[in-house]
Amino acid sequence: MKRWTSSVGFGAALVAGVAGGVLAGLASAAASPSPATTQAAPVAPVVPAGPSPLIYPGETIPIKFDHAMHARRGATCEGCHSSAPTSTAAVDNLIPGESACRSCHQIDRTQPAKSVPKGQPPARCDACHSDGANNNNGWMPTAGLGAEPPRVALARPNLKFNHQLHATRGIACALCHANASGQGMVTRTDLPMMASCLGCHNGKQSTGRCGACHLTEPDGRLKVKLATAATGAAGGSGLLEPSGSLRGIDAHGPTFRRDHAQAGRDESYCLSCHRRNECTDCHGGVVKPPDIHPADYVTLHVADARRNVPDCSSCHRLQTFCVGCHQRTGVSSDPSGGVPGTKPNNPFGTGTQVKQFHPPGWARDTAGAVIATPRPASHAVQAKRNIRTCVSCHREESCLECHSSDPTRGANFSPHGPNFGATARCRFLASRNRRACLKCHGLGAAELDCQ
Predict the structure, then answer these.
(1) By C-alpha distance, which of 52, 22, 33, 18 is closest to 251?
(2) Beta strands 237-241 and 25-27: pairing type?
(3) Residue 249 in contact with residue 45, Cβ under 8 Å?
(4) Fewer CB atoms inside 10 A, N or C side of the chain?
């Protein structure tokens, strides 16, 4: 015997459940996440308790119905839901009409309180119809025989589903509606969850593409702003978001914007809902959400900056943002920015003997004179090893103060080594980017032609 579907409709049944699992987060589209903390705990996956109201909104079912009792008497799914095997859209109303009930119930609209012999299916109106306020309260016409009982109202489901396709492939009703035949009234809370659908829709046995079931925008992305109002109710909308039950790392919780690096490794998955420019705008520094960092982060960012977690340069420009701020606040060994002829005047700066950022003999001797011949402890060793560590504090002008060929800047110490112009290295670098050479060498200089 086939298992039963809900009285809200065979079509609505599988519709609501497919969405109940993964994309089940209901949040206001205007809601903003709370400030993240520097040590945010991972968000635990949310296991939905029932189908998402974003996928199948609320319903009104003023009917008293017992699926289990009908199943025991030999009723089948197709016997009542006769249009289900040919339904191709989730919006189809597959609820049995009065004609389907008349095959067993001797309904007579001229006799609302009609009695039938014991053991036969009831024919009274209040045996099946309720007043809509409480399904235990039966409905009887009080305004004449033409009065109509409260009707079932289902909102348009935000999902695609083809019953006909599943039926022609031999998928039985009981596979998705396993509990219906053992229950009384079956509502949207009893509908199949997405986990049931993923048993087949795994990309191998059947398509695993999200857009095969979820509504999509014209460009192919999932439609995430969905209506939530039931039929006849005030309009509303919500934002469809991953709950974390599919991958465990994709739950869009309060700290997800900060901690989404692992989930973002699968770019195609993210692009199911997001435009590519959402990533590039934020990671390129165009968009700078203020709540990425907690309050008073300026005094707390030292530890994160040293660990480079998250990578500060993904949003901030090192030279114009970090170095500039450190120079303005005096937390820098070079507050003047390397302006020629300007001696650092800073309680933390070089030559003050208050605090040294570098060991003695780094660039100047104890008298403050520039060290012409590099030593093992000189900055040249570290600069050649990883110049990125230098630019985390110094601007380019700091280097040009000593390494420019412009005599007005000061000393002219070549960073290249002897006979560099005659080497293949010189020619290679010049061919790659001549503009870098112009930082130190003037136009027309022989060094530009590697001479």
Answers:
(1) 22
(2) antiparallel
(3) no
(4) C
Residue 313 near residue 327 (C-beta atoms within 8 A): no
> Is 298 a member of any domain?
no
**DSSP readout, 105-156?**
S---TT-TT----TTSPP--GGGTBB-SS-TTSB---SS-TT--PPPPEEPP
Residue type, 154: L
Q: Which residues pair with 239 in a beta bridge?
A: 27, 225
Q: Would you call 424 helix, strand, or coil by DSSP?
A: helix
Residue 64 lies in a domain: no
Its pTM stands at 0.58
Evaluated on CA atoms 415, 417, 420, 425, the torsion sign reads negative
CA dihedral of residues 433, 439, 440, 443 (deg, nearest 10): 80
Structure tokens at 429: 């670098």
Distance CA 216, CA 205 (A): 23
Domain match, 406 and 380 both:
yes
Residue 358 to residues 28, 91, 155, 296, 391: CA-CA distances in angstroms?
Answer: 52, 71, 70, 29, 14
Q: How far apart (Å, rounded) are the C-alpha atoms in residues 94 and 84?
A: 6
Per-residue model confidence (pLDDT) at position 165: 93
Q: Which domain holds residue 409?
A: 317-415
358 or 231: which leads in pLDDT: 358
H helix or E strand, kind and range, residue 1: none
Query: Of the candidates 189, 193, 176, 161, which has an alpha carbon nearest to the alpha carbon of residue 91?
Result: 161
Same domain, 386 and 359: yes
In 3-state terms, what secondary structure has residue 59? strand
- The residues near 309 (Cβ < 8 Å, ≥ 6 apart) are none
Given a contact cutoff of 8 angstroms between Cβ atoms, the answer to whether 105 and 125 are in contact is no
Residue 326 lies in a domain: yes
Q: Quickly count: other Cβ atoms within 10 Å of residue 436's Cβ.
A: 11
User: What's the rounded mean pLDDT across residues 89-110?
Assistant: 89
Q: Give yes or no for a contact between 28 and 238, defined as CB atoms under 8 angstroms apart.
A: yes
- Segment 169-194, tens digit of pLDDT: 999 888 888 888 788 888 787 777 88
